[in-house]
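Session log. Operator J.P. requested a structure for one protein chain; no other inputs attached. Running the standard single-chain path with C-alpha cell output.
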Amino acid sequence: MKDWPDMTEKLTLGWEEWASLPRLGLPAIKAKIDTGARTSSLHAFAVEPFGSPDRPRVRFGLHPIPNRPEVEIYCSARVIDRREITSSNGEAEMRYIIETPVNIGGREWPIEISLTNRESMQYRMLIGRHALMKDDAVEPRRSFIQGELSYDVYKPQASKPEVQRSLRIAILTREPENYSTQRLIEAATARDHVVELIDTRRCYMNINAFSPEVYYDGRPLPRFDAVIPRIGASLTSYGMAVVRQFEALGTYCVNTSTSIGNSRDKLLAHQLLAKHGIGMPTTAFASSPKDSDNLIELVGQTPIIIKLLESTQGRGVVLAETKKAAQSVIGAFRNLNANFLVQEFVKEAEGVDIRCLVVDGKVVASMRREAQTGDFRSNLHRGGTARSVRITKEERDAAIRAAKILGLEVAGVDLLRSNSGPKVLEVNSSPGLQGIESVSNKDIADLIIQHIERRAHPIVRRRTGRRAAAD
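Structure written below.
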C-alpha cells in the first residue's frame, strides 16, 4: 500500500473540475465538487462482488463520457465497506465503498468512493467534503481552476499501459486439479487476481446482437476481464463456440477461438505454416482410398508417421516401419472414417524433439524431450524424459513465427532437429506447464498472468443502435 504524503499545500477548486483515478484506469473524468455531500460517489453499473470474504473485491463498469454509452470502462477495486447512503433526493441505497487515489491538478491523494448508478446525472463523479483536505477551498462560481483534461484519452490511439488492478479471470477447463490449472491459480492469486474455474461442458449460450451471455448451471456468468481456454481435444468444437461467445462479450481471451481452431486442425495448421515458409516434415493428405500408395510415395521411403488429425499427447500417432505396415494402418483408419495425415519420419531426430514455450511472441523456456526405449514418441505423457536445452536462433525464430502464424499468444511449439534445419512438428494451444517448469526452473504460469495483465484492456467500445461516434 502506498504511503501517502501529508498534503499541506492548499488546493483551490471550482465547483466542477477534471480529475483522474489512476488505479481504476480512468485518465479523465469530470467531477462535481459538492461540499453539501458527505461521501464521494462514482458512476457504476454491472456491479459484481467477487473474491474471498477476507479480501472482498468489486468489479464494475462505467461510461466516463456523458451521452457516449458505447465507451465502457471496466474497473476493479478492494471493497473497504458497504454502507447505506442517502442521496440528495432522500432515497437510501446500500452501496459498496472503495478507496482509491484521485488526482486533481497534479495533487494525488486517497479518497473513499461509493459506487452507484449516475447514468441520469450530468456528472459521472461527485466529490464530497470528506474527500477534501482541511485547508482546501471551493469557489462555487468558477470552473476548472486546476486545468482541463480531455476525453480524447479514451480514443484507441491514445491508449496507455495498463494500470495494476485486480482482474477477474476464468479458466475454461474440465480438469480443475491439473498441475497447469493449479499453477495458473497460484500465479494469479499471488498477483492479487481472482480465478474462477469454469467447466466448458456446463456452459451454454444466449446468442443475440444486443445482450449476448454465457450461462452456467442455470445463471448468467459474470463479466470476466480475461479467459484462459484450456480445452481438451474431445471438446474442441464446443469449446471454440464458448470462447467465441466470450469474445462477443468483449472479454480478453488468451488464445482466440480462431487460433485454437487453427492449431487443433492439424491439416489446416500445416497448410498455414507451409504457406508462410515454415520448415516441416513432408506431409501428405488425401480422402480417396485409391490414393494410399501415392500418399506413401509423397513423403518418401518408410518408415513413415501416420497421424490422426485429432491426435493429442501422442495418442493416434503410429510409426509404420514398412510399406505393408503403412498400407495396413491407413486401411484401418479409413475403415473407421478417421481423418489422418501421412508424414515423413525424420530419422536423424532419433526420437528427440524440442518443446518451445511461447508467450506473447517470445520463447520463455525450452526443453529437450526424449522418447523412452522402444518408442518414437517423446511426449512426457507417453513416458518420455525431458531436460533443459539451449536452442539456436533459427529454432527460436521458427517457434515464434509458428505461434504468430496460427494466431496463438500462448503456445507450445514442438520442433525436430533435422539435417536441413528445424522442422515444426506441432503447435499446441493448451501446453502443459509441469514438465517445462520443472526442467527450466522458470515460473511460466507467472509469465502468462503478466501477459494477461498487459492485454486485458479495461476500455470496451460497443456499438449502439446507430453507428457509434467513437468509430
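Operator note: Residues 343 and 456 are 39 Å apart (CA to CA).
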